[in-house]
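User
New here, explain this?
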Amino acid sequence: MKKIITFGEIMLRLGAPDYLRLTQCDRFDVSFAGSEANVAVSLANYGLPVKYITRLPDNPVADRCIRELKSYNVDTESVIRGGKRIGILYLETGSNSRPSRIIYDREDSAFASISSDSIDWKMIFADAQWFHWTGITPALSENAAKICSIAIKTANEMGLIVSCDINYRKNLWNYGKSASEVMPDLVAGCDIIAGNEEDCEKVFGIQNEHSSFLPVCQQMMERFPRCRKMAVSIRESVNANHNVWSAVLYSDGTLKQSQKYDITDIVDRVGSGDSFMGALIYGLLSFGNDDRKALDFAVAASALKHTIKGDYNQVSVGEVLNLMNGDSSGRIKR
């Protein structure tokens, strides 16, 4: 099977332990985090060949990051080394009425300072079938946005499937251009688009005025005619520890609605959207034309992610299928 390529920044994740506030803690739980890397790890866990493209400094912290990605069977051969620092994400995990909080320290990171001509996409895509990117990448710098544009156009020319998770992050768009200026031209080259209600409204001005997400999906696909499938993840937040999770997928003129998962006692919800995207890509590649099964697989996989600490969704295909088939008891497997 040809490879899936993901492209974006990976950061050092420093989490305040035991529900402490950042102002309280004197130590951190150390791991790595990045939307496109999260998708890559999910796909590799499901047994698909995946290559991750990023830029990291030449230092021991970045070495550790690459070793970890390799341990999940993610191909890192095309990772670019250079720049001064790895970006950092500080995480404060919320509880009940206190929401979680993320602070980014990624300005002038190795990835944000990447050169627009530093990647030979034709070579990267030579043995690939799918290219995945997110709206986080073009938010980081003008050069990152240019590279993303080149990658999408090259993937289109070479016949790859291109997917995008809109992933709007208001605080990252600070180099003089807004998401609404940059994203439409990039998303126009996508075959599969995913996002949530806020993404569609904040970036494209498309509002959901009904209980159904059908109008949102229809407007997105009318605006971006290349798009064949539009997925919207739906999070009903009761509090920081209790969410109701579901999604819809619009394809072939029909809106598919997933089952809902009532998730209590959340361990870690960061990365859950990426786990949805990774599982959706797997489902679309593995289940033929059964879009409903692909959607259900993606929602079940991301429901499981809420129970796993760290950004990566470390679950198997079998575990996801068990949940899809109704095994939510949590009983010990012997």
In short: The two ends are 33 Å apart (CA to CA). The first helix runs from residue 35 to 45. The chain is about 35% helix and 25% strand. Residues 153 and 186 are 9 Å apart (CA to CA).
